[in-house]
Design the sequence.
């Protein structure tokens, strides 16, 4: 539930956004001025062309450059505190925005003041980046350490003391935010009242509870069976100045990026939107295409050798094209080098086992269907190389939950289906934490961890760990 984030309580205001814009503009202006002062000191470097001691920056640049930075930062939603709660995400988008702004500024110089020193421009870019980065770090440290005043305290009332309400209470208490106070529950369900501590009253008495305890925020955490009460509860609070939130317990929608979309002119709540937003999807897709093409090009010689090994041992077909379940439950054809006998699918039921809990185990180290060439390819993950084609086509991502077999998905529990909230990947958190030693469908929590903590930096970390795991051949069979 994002509204429990500490930065949302302090930074999500128009005043702070305007302050950020002004500070970024001032940072760019000061960086340009300081770069002009510092430029003569670079004359001693061999690769720098000496210039007079006094450098004059054209006055229009003190206007154009701050505008360029602010417009690009705004276009990338840097001033929207809700979008980048985590410091790493904010600093990553800041780096991208700085790169775009730098290229834009270089274009302005090319078509206007081409005599501006390139060394001066590089110094300016470095100073501007550091200035915009440093003041944000200082702001985060300040917000984290400042003490909350009594008039800024947010007192939260939870409607519903059932399982979902208890989760909200636990998260509130564990957040340890000084200005966020869990006041208690209201609930009409007699079964829930046993765990409702403190219970401030019944839901029908919510107006009195709000005024008596000076509540600022109300979280509706009702089970799906009680959703019919929501309208009545909201109506009782219509003229009370409180913030109202709904805890999404129905199929645990928090893993999806639930949004409001327009369908035929009617506003609709999209419950199956991707768990990553449009910007993250753009970055992820650009990352996949760029590095996917590089990886595919480098892998072509290995792919040719692998294809030859498969053909020489067991003839065609070279590729195995199984149906897999991808994002949002869509089926697609995944490409792999064939590592089993041609009739392996017909023998699936003969090799499946069940563990002590009755769960299906469909992979084993001694699977008799695997060919000699296939065992080598699997050991070194060479059978996965054709999936770079799936990445280029958009069926898969380099990093994400592993595509699952349709017949296993049919046996999924509802909570396991959350792993389809993002595109499937060649590698992922599951693969670098056990691979075949941990049956995928029995360890969906690894995929859920990835979804809840997604960032492009996590993708990079997983890729590096994958290379190490593949070199060791750990868990691959």
Sequence:
């Amino acid at each position: 539930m994002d509204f429990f984030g500490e930065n949302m309580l302090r930074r999500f205001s128009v005043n702070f956004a305007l302050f950020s814009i002004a500070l970024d503009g001032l940072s760019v202006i000061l960086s340009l001025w300081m770069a002009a002062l510092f430029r003569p000191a670079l004359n001693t470097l061999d690769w720098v062309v000496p210039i007079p001691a006094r450098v004059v920056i054209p006055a229009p640049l003190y206007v154009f450059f701050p505008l360029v930075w602010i417009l690009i930062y705004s276009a990338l939603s840097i001033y929207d505190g809700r979008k980048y709660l985590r410091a790493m995400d904010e600093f990553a988008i800041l780096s991208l925005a700085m790169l775009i702004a730098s290229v834009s500024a270089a274009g302005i110089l090319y078509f206007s003041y081409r005599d501006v020193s390139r060394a001066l421009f590089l110094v300016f870019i470095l100073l501007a980046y550091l200035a915009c980065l440093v003041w944000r770090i200082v702001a985060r440290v300040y917000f984290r350490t400042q003490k909350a005043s009594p008039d800024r305290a947010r007192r939260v009332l939870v409607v519903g003391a059932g399982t979902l309400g208890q989760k909200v209470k636990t998260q509130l208490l564990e957040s340890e935010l000084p200005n966020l106070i869990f006041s208690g529950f209201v609930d009409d369900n007699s079964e829930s009242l046993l765990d409702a501590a403190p219970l401030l009253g019944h839901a029908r008495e919510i107006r009195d509870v709000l005024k008596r305890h000076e509540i600022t925020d109300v979280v509706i955490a009702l089970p799906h069976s009680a959703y019919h009460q929501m309208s009545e509860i909201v109506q009782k609070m219509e003229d009370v100045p409180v913030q109202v939130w709904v805890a999404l317990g129905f199929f645990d929608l928090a893993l999806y990026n639930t949004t409001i979309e327009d369908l035929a002119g009617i506003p609709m709540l999209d419950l199956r939107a991707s768990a990553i937003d449009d910007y993250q999807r753009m970055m992820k897709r650009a990352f996949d295409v760029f590095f996917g093409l590089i990886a595919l090009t480098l892998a072509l010689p290995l792919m040719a050798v692998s294809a030859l090994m498969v053909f020489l041992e067991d003839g065609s077909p070279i590729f195995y094209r199984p149906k897999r379940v991808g994002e949002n439950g869509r089926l697609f054809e995944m490409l792999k080098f064939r590592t089993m006998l041609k009739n392996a699918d017909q023998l699936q039921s003969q090799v499946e086992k069940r563990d002590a809990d009755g769960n299906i185990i469909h992979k084993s180290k001694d699977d008799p269907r695997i060919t000699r060439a296939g065992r080598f390819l699997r050991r070194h993950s060479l059978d996965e190389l054709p999936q770079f084609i799936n990445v280029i086509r958009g069926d898969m991502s380099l990093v994400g939950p592993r595509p699952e077999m349709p017949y296993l998905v049919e046996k999924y529990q509802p909570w396991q289906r959350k792993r389809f909230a993002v595109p499937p990947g060649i590698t992922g958190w599951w693969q670098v934490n056990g691979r075949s030693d941990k049956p995928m469908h029995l360890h969906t929590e690894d995929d859920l961890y990835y979804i809840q903590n997604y960032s492009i930096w996590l993708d990079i970390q997983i890729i590096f760990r994958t290379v190490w795991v593949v070199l060791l051949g750990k868990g691959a069979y």
About this structure: The chain has three domains: 2-145, 150-250, 278-472. Residues 278-472 form one domain.
